[in-house]
Amino acid sequence: MFAEINTFLNDLIWGNILIYLLPILGIFFTVSSRFVQFRYFFRMFNILRESVHDKQGHISSFQALMLSVAGRVGGGNIAGVAVAITLGGAGAVFWMWVIALVGMATSFFECSLAQLYKEKDGIDSCVYRGGPAYYATKALKQKWLGIVISVLLLITFGFAFNATQSFIISTSFEASFNLPTWISGTIITIVFGITIFGGVKRIAKMSEVIVPIMALGYLLIALVVIVLNIDEIPGLIMMIITEAFNPSSAIGGGIGAVIIQGAKRGMFSNEAGLGSAPNVAAVAYVAHPVQQGIVQSFSVFIDTIILCSCTAFIILLSGVYTPGVESVQGILLTQNALIEHIGPFGGYFVTVALFLFGFSSMIYNYYLAENSLNFFSKGNVTVFNVFRVLCVLLVIWGSFQDLSSIFAFADLSMGLLAIINLIVITILYKPVLQLIKGYERQLKEGKTPVLRYNDYTEFNIDKETWKEIVDNINDKKTKE
Q1: Can you tell me where the transmembrane regions are (predicted)?
Q2: Which of 42, 170, 222, 337 has the most CB atoms around it within 10 Å of its CB?
């Protein structure tokens, strides 16, 4: 009975509410901001290069981006895209791209808000905290709403998703290398424990190392596949576009199934609007909230337009996929496709990639949970350490225990979180538009934008936090 209720609610939230709400609001944010995700796309590279990261040990814009990508990029980039293609055909890839491009604007709005309403960490004065719970509490003055958001984040990411990721990784290594789950589970748990007990800074540093390796490695193998099949690329792109509007008769459900599968893959993969990424965006030490909004929107691009497309190209160029045939899907389809391209090494590569993608997601998930716990405990070291021990135990337990039912419940709680977050950022879209105007005005004046915090006092921001940041940056410029 519980499973049936859970399935019904999941289908209602993801299949009938978010499937329409996310793209509609994405379009609204895109138009109202005058296509901010495209206008400032290339400026993102300058922001990362010039991001402020002083000797006091603040977390840089680049580190926050890598931590965000660590969360957005996961097993879904390998298995989820394969499922979308199996059920929705090649055309699903096109709608996956569309949902990502409009989702970049949604991510910009929620992450800019997270920066605007951030506050100092209770333990480390060089670390900041923020996210939906913080901007819902401060901007809307609804403490209860912040509590609900924090509880949903804590349960979803801290417990359910991490235990499930551990199971996926350990069973994948067992299938590919005949490695017992208890061995891989123990290794995962030890590395995970060392990382999270080092706090936010160690999590950020670990992401800074893992994410570029896994992203560039996966991109490189996809480029090898593309080069080997370079003559087929124009035809493949035309097929993706054609199938998006006129799907093969073998695809059950017609164009509706194509759009839904592509949109779902985009939503699940890039997490734009779901309320998770803003928690990470808030930690970056930047001079103006818009800077991190621009950078975080780029993480959506990396996840879906680049890495999900890598999986799609690997599958569609291989010949192992047959429209309408569902006998092989998920990770196995991706593995078979890569084996077809480069031989047995392809299967092992997918397993290793899954490990890197999954582990990076685990440390990201933990950070989201810790950030939510901080909303209640305000830097209580004892509470944090007890929570870390509990998370480590869940990871080792999850490495040999199938928790698919818990994962399904986590999908439901994440769906509820997404609906709440989307409503909140829609209500608060005007402060973001004001941030954009202030940022652009300083650019036109030929100045490096910093937040003029006195212009935003009506929004109940933490003025002292921003005063310290701006004064520090101005002092640094004066010395230079």
Answers
A1: 12-36, 81-109, 144-161, 181-200, 209-230, 236-260, 300-322, 342-367, 379-400, 406-429
A2: 170
Separation in Å, CA 405 to CA 4, 14, 84, 163: 11, 17, 21, 12
Contact of 30 with 105, CB cutoff 8 Å: yes
Report d(CA 116, CA 105) in Å as an integer: 17
Residue 452: both structure tokens together? 């003029």
Q: What is the pLDDT of residue 55?
A: 47
pLDDT in tens, 274-315: 888 898 888 888 888 998 899 889 888 988 888 888 888 988
Pairwise pLDDT comparison (147 vs 205), residue with the higher score? 147
Residues 6+ away with beta carbon under 8 Å from 447 = none
**Residue 300, CA distances (Å) to 90, 270, 403, 465 in order:** 21, 5, 28, 28
Judge whether 281 and 292 are in contact, CB under 8 Å: yes
Which residue is it, tokens 């370079």? 230
pLDDT value for 404: 61
Distance separating alpha carbons of residues 148 and 228, to the nearest angstrom: 51
- The tokens for 52 are 């402020």
Give every CB contact of residue 355 below 8 A, 6+ residues apart in sequence.
Answer: 169, 172, 173
pLDDT in tens, 153-184: 888 887 777 777 788 788 778 877 788 888 88
Cβ-based neighbour number of residue 215 at 10 Å: 24
Residue 433 amino acid letter: L
Phi first, then psi, for residue 60 (nearest 5°) are -80, 165
Helix (H, G, I), strand (E, B) or coil at 119: strand
β-partners of residue 333 are none
Helix (H, G, I), strand (E, B), or coil: what is residue 129?
strand
Is the full-model pTM beyond 0.85? yes
Which domains does the chain show, CATH number per domain?
A: 1-471 (1.20.1740.10)
Q: pLDDT tens digits for 105-153?
A: 999 999 999 999 988 776 656 678 888 999 999 888 888 998 999 888 8
CA-wise closest residue to 107 among 286, 295, 288, 265: 295
Which tokens hold the place of 67? 């931590």
Rama region for 282: left / alpha / beta (φ>0; ψ in -120 to 50; rest): alpha
